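#struct-help
A.M.: can someone run this one for me? Single chain, 400 residues.
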Amino acid sequence: MSGLKGSFDCFVGIDVSKDKFDACGITGEETRLFQISAAMDRKGFEKLKKHFADVSVSSVLIGMESTASYHVNLFSFLVAEGYKVILINPLLISNYVKMQLRKTKTDKKDAVVIAQFLLANGDTLIQRATPALISDLRDLSRQRESLVDEMTSLKIEIKQLLNITFPELEHMVGIFTKSILKLLQQYPSAIALRDADIGQLAQTLITDSYGHKREEFAKTLIKAARSSIGTNSPAKEMIIKQKIGLLLHLEEALQDITDMLIEIARKLMGEDINIMTSIKGIGDKTAANFLVEMGGDINNFECSGKIIAMAGLDPAVYQSGQHEGRGRITKRGNRHLRRIIWMMTTRVIQYTDIFKAYYLKRRKEGLPYKKAVLATSHKLIRVIYAMLTQRTTFCEQLNS
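D.P.: on it. Structure tokens below:
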């Protein structure tokens, strides 16, 4: 702690709410320098800045809890002004409070506690601090994940509806190609398609998808529609049209956000992305999402096990007397990172021989599917960690 105390003259804890914030500044010896309450507006931000000047401190370390959104504007203001600001997981503050003998709950007290926690744990917190641009990338990554989830739900609902209005279609063609989605917006059921004009139907099909076979495929569709067991339901037809319209809109939004995510990520950590994508099965999107959720800097982690623990993929340890055993994974970490690692692992098992062989080996040893994938994910993270720290691309022969 002596190093941290020597680096900063003032440790500031900020407790943020929707309309106001409370701030408390202390020295390395926990002497209180100031304590203020201010509104969450420009005047309030400037008031805080003025207090830094009034107490004549040359270097300030600021900590604030990461709220849903209330902290963002104040955080951005302070970073733009050149201050070192660390976002702290509220769970860490909560656990710290539980360790204190006196338990009082006021915003001012919270600000003091955050300052004290910052002083006690600043060395570790600084190493794990997330840069503002990484935070923005994380927002993009999680919005993209949310869009993918929405689209998956919509596709399930559309399939269920089509199973009533035109059940044969799913066995004839991929429903979620743009060509078929555009077709279903006009003809959302077998009943609607039965009397369609073949020439008009052929024109509806996207040229790039079927080329010169459009008219032949149109005839096949009409034939299937005329023999379909699909139910006549104008209400379901309307719902299908609306859901397809929403799905197409979400696809455009997903593409826009993906393009921005990859563009910014490549500018910020292009070399890391190139290193990761040297493993077959890991693409730009997956690599960017992994790096963003991991915090953007591999040097924040002492070993690969820290990343595994951060994702909640480490096994829980159970101890009773002299017996010690390992159970299911903890799932206490970053669920977004955990999901990305799982997706990466299933892809590299499919496309990279080394990971496929390791997965099959664990299966032969008796592990069920999920545990075998989990074991392979641990190997994958160890390899990625070594690649990123040593700045080398993947070589299958060397990793065998």
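A.M.: thanks! The longest strand covers residues 32-39.
D.P.: also worth noting: The chain is about 60% helix and 10% strand.
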